[in-house]
Amino acid sequence: MKRLTAIAALAVVATATACGTTGTTSSGGIYTTIDGAKQIDASAPINPFNPQGSTFVGYDTMSLGWPKNDLMNPDLFYPGLAGSWSATPDQGEVVIHLRPNARWSDGKPVTSKDVRTSIGLAYTQGGSAYTVNAGAAGAAADVVIVDDKTVKITQGANRSNAFLRNVLSTVVVPDHVYGGLLPATFWRTLQDARGTGPAADKAKTEITGLSQKVITFSPRQDVSAGPFVLERVNPGAALLKRNPYFYDAAKIVPDKVKVLNYTGNEQIWNYLVSGKLDSAPFTAVPAAVMARIKATAGNEIRKGYSPVAASMAFNQSRKPYDNAHVRRALAYLIDRGQVTRVASPEAGTPSIATTGIHGSAAKAWLGPGLAGLNPYNVDPAKADQELRAAGMVKRKGQWGFADGKPWQVRLTVPAEFSDWVAAAKSITSQLNDHGIDASVTTSADYTLYLEELASGKLDVGFWLMALGPSPYNIYQRLYGSANGWSLLAGRLTHSPPGKDGNWMGGPEKIGGVNPGELTNRLNLATPEEQKKIVGTLARLTNEQLPVIQLYDYVNTQFVNTSRYTGWPPHDSEALRLPAGVWMQLGMIEKK
Amino acid sequence: MKLSATRDGTRDDPAEPQAAPVAKKGHPVRRRLAGHLVRGLVMIWVVTTISFVIIRNIPGDPVRGQYEALIERGMSPEQAERATAVLYGFLPTGTLWEQYVGYMKALLHLDLGQSLSTPGTEVTTLLGSAASWTILPVLGGTLLSFLLGVTLGVYAGIKRAGKLGDLLTISGSLLHGVPQYVLGLLMLAIFTTLWPILPAGGPVDVEFPPGLNGPYLASLVQHATLPVLTYALASYGGWVLAMKSSVATVLGDDFILAAELRGLSRWVLFRYVARNAILPLFTILALSLGMLFGGAIFIERIFNYPGLGLLLVDSIGARDYALMGGAFLVTTIAVVIANIAADLLYTVIDPRVRTGGAA
């Protein structure tokens, strides 16, 4: 018994010690946050090329620049490791000037060789500017070290206006840690891969074969050029300490950053309610929980632009959704304001009109043209007209097909997305009130939902859209692979409904316009041409309604003013970037 | 057809004519163990095969899920497509039969493959890491609830006509009826929000360097308190009720009456009752210990405790075939081992089993 008492006493003392020491640090304090992009996995290597890697963008993972998420111009960036850059008007050549005082956390300078190695590693992962696919638009053709701090990157013959932003998004890792992953013959192999024929194919396979080696690479310790460097990670959190060699070290206030792990929204709510987080990305929050979060001392909300919208999307290969009149009728029956109030009162605004673009960006892209588009305000009479025009018949107060078959609207959403479930219930309730037999079904999880959607099983579902700021990304969502258009080796092809993931099932041409082709041109067009194309696609989307845009998301972030101040203001372009970048921009100060 | 167990664990069919006794080689316990091992291996193979087929047939495309996740994080469609293509390299390809043969061959080399959700990480590494966080808290919770439940269950059985007995029975029924996740959420709300004296999530505070130092160990204890307590409370009710019922049965046995007539002391009587009543609970305990390798899914989820249960749930969400298979395999092996251990333990603690039921 005595032994038990002693053990218990020791545990109490030790617990008290832990309570006493938690959080006590030197002047800058520990900045506590959440990485909204991923959950922490302590087993993952300290490697930014690993999607689950134990590195954190903006803190210890650095890129050449940080996107500003401008409404219309995706080429606007804050300087990162690149202090400045220049590009020819056609983006054929981009010259990067590294910050002269940039250094790695082991004291070695960041040089052009690091950038070149990082680009080489990016080639093994493929995509964006660094693809070995012959004919791919926007691929880098040459990487030249001009001097220790200057790199010139040339675009291949098939130009894309995404080249500059793809280059600036390059993650830079130290050559003296990662360089060994690239064989000595890598750049020669890369040249071979750009050709055609068996030798090129062999070279491509060789480069792609390196991808797993790069992803699985696990350095023993973090070597960072960012404001912080990983000290340790466990399954519950990651701890980063200041990098004394960071080029703008004077701007960085916290001594450490603690990134807490989460497995579900409720954990983030709990952290917020207990006032633990200095900042956190938005998660869907029930009204009661939101009230408690707001009641916690210091908690505040920052709101800004977020280029994402929620929509109701149709499988047009299913009847009656192949008929634009039916889609329009449904649009006239849905009160988007009510849907937004029910589903996302804090982080959404009712969509002005279905344009394919987020409301704020639509104003910038379309100007006065936006007013000319149909807002589809609630109008049951117009809905009836449209349904009759589609050949639907109302019998005993219920709408059905002309041949007497009943019409049942089955709106499917993933069960785990509470705001979508709430929105879907609001919509079906409104449709039921108008004599349309509508109900909500749920898929067990998002992975299953996506498969059911892609396989054409679902009639109507929810779909994220308006993923700007690049206009190509915005419209690729509506007139890309989900609607049958795919880009292979620079050639755009269209698959029929139900094939190759074409679940939207829209026609290839609508009134002589091929929206997939127009979307693809957005990547190549000049700003003036882009405006014209966006105008055409917005009008077409508004008339045809491949989706009904319901609510545009608002970037809603939580900050706590108890320990730090100097947060990005509302509508700041920096709001969508991690807090580590805010610090780099000199935004976070100790209270 | 009724089968009866013989002393060496083999079974005889009473309907069959009695054959001449055959001399069996080796120690009976060793033969018994060998039989268990063979049956256990067959069971593991069967369960592994069934779970392999089920896992491969779970609807949901992990590649599409990964693509969407990257798009929603702001990646361009081409970047996301390429990134998922790289990840796709980690997925098994070929026909189901080819995959099965490959999987079984790898298993023979103790290779459970690589995780898709944590690319480049061996499944065994992830399982090992999760197991280290699961075993101690769940083991602690199980043993705590067992000791508490069994001890109080004896009192509840003996004093079942009194207020204390009623109180213990009610507490058992109440806690047995409350689902684990409700209990977990209540504990979370009470001890992390209303009266915030314990941490809400994670296994240990990352600020403390790992090792045998006071703050680190204290932080471990702090973080494990709520999961252990929740697990113990959630299981306590079952033990109390089972023990009470077992005690009530034993109290009616002739040997207890005989003991009372012999005027044995209450303490000796208590030992008689407890020792006999606890026997059936040992099997449940052994199986519970085997099941602890499946983790306490709800509790780990609520407290963000990175054990095997949480790993299994996450792997299902990500359709991480290799990880799911590995987690199921570990649970299966643990349950099989627990079964064997329970059987052998029974042989040791129950003389009736040792003598083939003839006692």
Quaternary state of the chains: heterodimer
Strand order of the largest sheet of chain B: 1-2
Shape designation of chain B = globular
Query: What do we call the CATH homologous superfamily of the largest domain in chain A?
Result: Dipeptide-binding Protein, Domain 3
Question: Number of DSSP strands of chain A?
Answer: 25
* Biggest interface found: A-B, 77 and 65 residues
CATH architecture of the largest domain in chain A: Roll
Report low-confidence residues of chain B grouped into runs of 5 or more. Answer: 1-20
- Can you give the helix content of chain A as a percent range? 25-40%
**Mind telling me the C-alpha Rg of chain B?**
25 Å
Query: What's the domain count of chain A?
Result: 3
Please state the overall shape of chain A, judged from the principal axes of the Cα atoms.
globular
Broad CATH class of the largest domain in chain A: Alpha Beta
| Number of strand segments of chain B | 2
Q: What is the helix tally of chain A?
A: 19
User: What is the distance, rounded to the nearest whole angstrom, between the alpha carbons of the first and last residues of chain B?
Assistant: 23 Å
The class by helix and strand makeup of chain A works out as: alpha+beta
- Uncertain parts of chain A: 1-25
Percent strand of chain B: under 5%
Tell me which CATH architecture of the largest domain in chain B applies here: Orthogonal Bundle
The biggest beta sheet of chain B is recorded as: 2 strands, antiparallel
InterPro entries (chain B): MetI-like (IPR000515), MetI-like_sf (IPR035906)
Protein name (chain B): Peptide/nickel transport system permease protein
Transmembrane segments (chain B): 33-55, 135-158, 178-198, 278-303, 323-346
Region (Disordered) (chain B): 1-27
